[in-house]
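To: structure desk
From: M.T.
Subject: fold request, one chain
Message: Could you run this one when you get a chance? Sequence is below, nothing fancy, just the single chain.
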Amino acid sequence: MKSIIEDKLDRIADVWNNFIWDYKFCSSKIKFNQDAKTNYFGDILGYFNDTLDIVFTKKRYTNYVDKFSFTISFLQAIYIQQDFIQEMLEIFKISIDKGKLKEDLTYSKNRELRNELIGHPIRKIETPTKLLIEIECDSCGKLLSRPKNEKVLLSSTVFSYQASEDEIQYLLYQKSNNFQSEIKTYSIDDIQDRHREFLEKYFEIILERLKSILDEYISKLDDLENVIENHDFTTVLKLVDLYYEAFFQSDYIFNKDSLEEIYKRMDEHNRYKLYIDKFYNGLRTELADKKISAKNIFERKVVDKSAYKSIPFPNLETIFTSNEEANIFAEDTKEFNHYLLGKLARKRNLDDFEFFGSVLKNNYQDNNIVLDELAHMERNISNEIEYYTSLNMICMELNSEK
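Reply: Done. C-alpha cells follow.
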C-alpha cells in the first residue's frame, strides 16, 4: 500500500529537484513564485514522507490511552496530507480547487471524520437574538441598531470506550437530533484504503502534468542538440541559457562571456580549442543523460523500500596507516596528480600554486606541454580564462597518458 505512494512521491521529487528547480523553462510552467523559490516544496515532501508511517501503519491498539493518541495523530496526518495535495495541485497549476476536492468521497469522508472528531469536537454557530445593540456607523458616525448575536451549540463529540482495535468510534450529539447520542463507527482499514485511493489518484494527476512539462522540455533539448551538430556557437550559448542554464555552473568558466572570448581565440592556441571541445563534449553528454533521466522517472519500476529496512548494516573495519606510507602510495599513482590538479583549480593564489605546481613540475620534467601550461598559469594567475584553459590542457594531456 505505502510503497506505491512512496514511489509516486519520489518521482514528483525527482522532477522538482532535477528539472523544475534547475531550469527556468520547467519552472515557468508552474506557479514558481517567491514562495516556491524558498523551496518550501521540499518541506512538503519531507513532511509527507514523515507522516506516511503514521497513516499506513498496520499496528492496532486496545489500550484506551494508546488508541486515543493514535486516533488523533492518524486522522490529523491524513488531514495534513490532504492539505499538501491541495497545495501541490495549486503549485503545478492543475485546475482542481478545494471545492472540487470536496466532491470526491475519497477526500470528503475522511476530512469530515477528522473535522467532527478532532478539528471541531464542539461546534457552535453565531445566531441573531431578539436583543438589540447599538453600533457606530463607519461612514456617517450615527448610532445604528442591530440584533445581538450569541453562539449556539450545534454538536459535540466524545470518544467511545467500546470500539474494537480495528475501528474508530465516538458518540455524536447534534442539535438536529435533539442532542440524542449517535454512535459513529469507522473501520481503520476503510479509512486507509480511502486515503490511499485519494493519494494515488491525485499523485497520478500531478505526474501526468509533470510528464507533459518534461515532454515539452525534452523537445527543446532536442533542438539544442541539433544546433550543437551545426556548430553555431552563438546560438548554442543562447539556447543553453534558455533551456539548460544549470550547465553554465558545471565548470569554473562555463559562462557566456568567457566562452565567447575563448571561442574567438581558438586559432591562437590549442588550449582554447581544447576548452571549447570540453564544453561541447560535456554538453552533449549531459543532454543525453538528462533526457534519459527524464524518461526513467516515468518508466522505472516501483521499488518497495520496506525490503531494504531488513538488510543489516555491514561491519566496517578501519585500517590506519602512517602519513609517510600514505604519501608514498599516493605519489606513485596518477590519482595523486589529479589530486594536485584539483587543488590548483580551487586554490588560485601564488603560495598554493607554487606548492602544488612544483610537485607537478617535478613529476613531469620531460613533458613540455605540462611545463609550458604551468608557466602560463603562473603568469596569469589572476586571469580566469588563461588560468583555467591551461589547467584544462594539462588535464587533457595527463588523461591521454597510458
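Reply (cont.): The radius of gyration is 32 Å. Let me know if you need anything else for the meeting.
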